[in-house]
């Protein structure tokens, strides 16, 4: 195995592909990632809460900054492969 130090939000070049890690929204800290290789894309959400109305309310109530809200709403559902968890609200995507 090869270990690398990564920074959240920064691309990491590995072999012929790239990885990027991001924070999800969950009661416990969770990190998702996306990968790009040979023109294909993959994203894994990790445990997260993705509900547009719920995220908007958290932002309006001051729990999320507008930048954090926009980052969560910009989830790449259009990627070639998307693995997005779903579970029981309020800490998981309904």
Description:
With 94 residues, the chain is of the alpha+beta class. It is built from two helices and five strands, in the order ββββααβ. It has a five-stranded mixed beta sheet, with no helix packed on it. It is elongated and about 45 Å long. The chain starts with 10 loop residues before the first strand and ends in an 11-residue tail after the last strand. The model has no long low-confidence stretch (mean pLDDT 93).
Please outline what is shown here.
The protein has 94 residues and is of the alpha+beta class.
Compressed to H and E, one letter per element, the order equals EEEEHHE
List how many beta strands DSSP finds. 5
- Main β-sheet: number of strands, strand sense, barrel status? 5 strands, mixed
Indicate the mean pLDDT.
93
Which word captures the global form? elongated
Strand content: 25-35%
Instruction: Output the number of helix runs.
Output: 2
Radius of gyration: 14 Å
Strand line-up of the largest beta sheet: 1-2-3-4-5
Structural classification: alpha+beta
Helix content: 10-25%
Uncertain residue ranges: none
Distance between the termini: 36 Å
Provide key terms for this protein:
alpha+beta, 94 residues, five-stranded mixed sheet, single chain
Task: Compile the SSE list and pairings.
Elements: E1 11-14, E2 17-23, E3 31-37, E4 40-44, H1 52-60, H2 66-73, E5 81-83
Parallel strand pairs: 4-5
Antiparallel strand pairs: 1-2, 2-3, 3-4
Helix pairs in contact: 1-2
């Amino acid at each position: 195995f090869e270990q690398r130090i990564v920074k959240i939000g920064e691309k990491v070049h590995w072999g012929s592909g790239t990885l990027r890690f991001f924070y999800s929204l969950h009661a416990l800290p969770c990190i998702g990632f996306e990968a790009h290789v040979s023109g294909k894309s993959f994203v894994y959400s990790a445990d997260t809460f993705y509900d547009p109305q719920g995220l908007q309310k958290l932002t309006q109530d001051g729990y999320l900054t507008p930048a954090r809200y926009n980052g969560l709403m910009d989830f790449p559902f259009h990627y070639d492969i998307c693995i997005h968890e779903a579970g029981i609200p309020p800490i998981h995507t309904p």
